[in-house]
Specification:
alpha/beta, 9-stranded mixed beta sheet, 11 helices
């Protein structure tokens, strides 16, 4: 696919088209207050994975509504002192998968927490966390579940789970809460931006080809799913467009980015039709902390920088978590 979005010089100035609700901060403060009314109940259970260089814990904690959410906590074998903590969120359709697929960050000397995404994992990876909350009619996928009401929307639960995941990970004695970073790719990048806007004391944030940003542009620019799920829903529910736009405004990564306090590393791919580069740049340009950088991959689609960027991100994290 050739370039289809704005030229790079225009991307660097693009401000996005999402409209921030006047009660955005109140909505999220109320949401997190409701979640924190339930005990966190983080349980870390050692598991024998057959690995010798890392130690793995199967984790359960209380997320949105007190619902149990799973995760992996992976640390270098023999670790005895608190380590810099990296909390990771996974891409659309995926789950936490098997523990042996999460070796890089622990091998680099970090405590690594991977959150399972409620209701997902059948697309790849495998998940272990159900989403017990129902919704009205929705298009297959997750983008339109509960989209008729911000309180009922699926990502209200996911973003709340993510904040609670940081709290759970920080509760482990081998995690240095004062040196915590959040990272993710695609959907994981969008969740990372939400966490960056809702958790004020992260020391680093890395959002790669992030999803869930600049919904008004994304949903009209690309025909690819997952964004296309919203258009397909509105093909049937033609009278709900404004209602859907209102809901999505509470979950737009651009608004969370405007509240981001930690130094941040973004990445964008100029041929990315899944998360168009203008939507990524909308979040990057809105990001509040001036200590931010974006890596641009000119000839890549949604794979972004792949392993090359993974290595660059690791070096960037080390500089901020160990420097």
């Amino acid at each position: 696919m050739a370039l289809f979005d704005l030229p790079l010089d225009q991307l660097r100035a693009y401000g996005g088209s999402a409209v921030e609700p006047e009660d955005f901060d109140r909505f999220w403060a109320r949401t997190l207050d409701e979640a924190r009314a339930y005990p966190l109940d983080a349980v870390f259970t050692p598991v024998d994975t057959g690995l010798r260089t890392v130690e793995v814990h199967d984790v359960t904690f209380a997320g949105f509504g007190g619902h149990p959410v799973k995760g992996w906590f992976v640390v270098p074998a023999g670790a005895s002192q608190p380590l810099p903590l990296v909390v990771e969120f996974v891409g659309y359709g995926g789950g936490r998968g098997l523990a042996h697929t999460h070796l890089l960050l622990a091998s680099a000397g970090f405590a690594h927490f991977v959150m399972d995404t409620r209701g997902q994992g059948a697309g790849w990876g495998g998940g272990d966390t159900p989403d017990p909350v129902g919704s009205g009619p929705s298009f297959p996928g997750f983008m339109t579940r509960g989209v008729e009401d911000p309180d009922a929307y699926y990502y209200r639960r996911v973003f709340t789970d993510a904040v609670r995941a940081v709290e759970a990970a920080r509760s482990h004695p081998l995690a240095d809460a004062a040196r915590t970073a959040a990272v993710g790719v695609s959907q994981g990048g969008g969740i990372t931006l939400a966490v960056g806007g809702l958790v004020p004391d992260l020391v680093a944030l890395a959002a790669d080809v992030p999803f869930l940003c600049d919904f008004p542009r994304a949903t009209t620019l690309t025909d690819r799913r997952p964004y296309r799920e919203i258009g397909d829903y509105l093909k049937v529910f033609r009278d709900r467009a404004e209602q859907v736009r209102r809901t999505l405004n509470y979950f737009d990564g651009v608004h969370f980015a405007a509240r981001g306090r930690a130094p941040a590393l973004f990445s964008a791919a100029l041929e990315d039709q899944t998360c168009p580069p203008s939507t990524v740049f909308a979040a990057f340009n809105a990001y509040a902390n001036e200590r931010k950088a974006i890596e641009v991959y000119e000839f890549n689609d949604h794979e972004g920088g792949g392993h090359q960027h993974e290595a660059a991100r690791l070096a960037w994290l080390r500089a901020r978590l160990e420097g």
